[in-house]
Amino acid sequence: MPAKYRRPLLLVAGALLVTAAVVPIAVGSASAQDEPSGPASGAQPRIVGGDEASLSDHPYAVYLTDSGGNQYCGAVIVSSSAVATAAHCAKAIAASDTRVVAGRQDKRTDDGIVLAVSKVWIDPDFTDPTKGDDIAVLTVRGQLPYRPAKVADASDRSSYDTGTQATVLGWGRLSDGGARSDTLRSVVVPVVSDSACKTAYDTYDPASMVCAGYPDGGKDACQGDSGGPLVVGDTLIGVVSFGDGCAKAGKPGVYTRVSAFSDDIAQQSQGRILG
């Protein structure tokens, strides 16, 4: 069964608007300003079954907001001047209105830094998360003084072995229709075999995607977490992309397979630091 879809929601001056773009529910739902607007389906838009996480352990975890400070996606530091995220996140908000918030574990604080975006690279083959190539690199205007994640490449094959324990991080909602998480959360999920993921999703492409989750569900990433990191240790192996619902049995989360795009990420993250 293919992933379900919904229109992302946009909250402007207290009014709930619906944009024209269509993106997947749950793990791939980059609802523009999804945090303040609330879900429009029965999905549980959050890091499901997880715990609070510390930026001291994961300093590369960052989130994206619009110019009004509304968080709508996650991202991950890949160099002192760039973050990687999902392409559908990069397309959700204009570059001029996008902000990268780093070093802020609790969104209620003023910790860390907020940087504007000077350049956006989106994989030229991207059309829809379920078709793959869901990767983007944002160059920030300034410098990110936090340790980046190591980007997986062809030498990191073992990180994608079935059963490998990986950690997904994000600031998604705490329950279906409930309060959003103000703090960074994480959950550990095992990498799923390509055959099992193909059974769950007809459009699964092992060359550009990787799945992670438990057969019985219960732990997953979801709305508000799109674009965030899936790491093994401090190695970035995936970026939250899409899924059918959240933490459903037989429906693991689907992530962009970062190793397939390591050369692009390296090239795009070497840009000049702008201040």
UniProtKB/TrEMBL annotation:
<keyword id="KW-0964">Secreted</keyword>
<keyword id="KW-0333">Golgi apparatus</keyword>
<dbReference type="GO" id="GO:0007599">
    <property type="term" value="P:hemostasis"/>
</dbReference>
<feature type="domain" description="Peptidase S1">
    <location>
        <begin position="47"/>
        <end position="270"/>
    </location>
</feature>
<keyword id="KW-0325">Glycoprotein</keyword>
<dbReference type="InterPro" id="IPR001254">
    <property type="entry name" value="Trypsin_dom"/>
</dbReference>
<keyword id="KW-0645">Protease</keyword>
<dbReference type="Pfam" id="PF00089">
    <property type="entry name" value="Trypsin"/>
</dbReference>
<protein>
    <submittedName>
        <fullName>Trypsin</fullName>
    </submittedName>
</protein>
<dbReference type="InterPro" id="IPR001314">
    <property type="entry name" value="Peptidase_S1A"/>
</dbReference>
<dbReference type="GO" id="GO:0004252">
    <property type="term" value="F:serine-type endopeptidase activity"/>
</dbReference>
<dbReference type="GO" id="GO:0006508">
    <property type="term" value="P:proteolysis"/>
</dbReference>
<keyword id="KW-0732">Signal</keyword>
<keyword id="KW-0256">Endoplasmic reticulum</keyword>
<keyword id="KW-0356">Hemostasis</keyword>
<dbReference type="InterPro" id="IPR050430">
    <property type="entry name" value="Peptidase_S1"/>
</dbReference>
<keyword id="KW-0378">Hydrolase</keyword>
<dbReference type="InterPro" id="IPR006311">
    <property type="entry name" value="TAT_signal"/>
</dbReference>
<keyword id="KW-0720">Serine protease</keyword>
<dbReference type="GO" id="GO:0005576">
    <property type="term" value="C:extracellular region"/>
</dbReference>
<keyword id="KW-1015">Disulfide bond</keyword>
<dbReference type="InterPro" id="IPR043504">
    <property type="entry name" value="Peptidase_S1_PA_chymotrypsin"/>
</dbReference>
<comment type="similarity">
    <text>Belongs to the peptidase S1 family.</text>
</comment>
<dbReference type="InterPro" id="IPR033116">
    <property type="entry name" value="TRYPSIN_SER"/>
</dbReference>
<dbReference type="InterPro" id="IPR009003">
    <property type="entry name" value="Peptidase_S1_PA"/>
</dbReference>
<feature type="signal peptide">
    <location>
        <begin position="1"/>
        <end position="32"/>
    </location>
</feature>
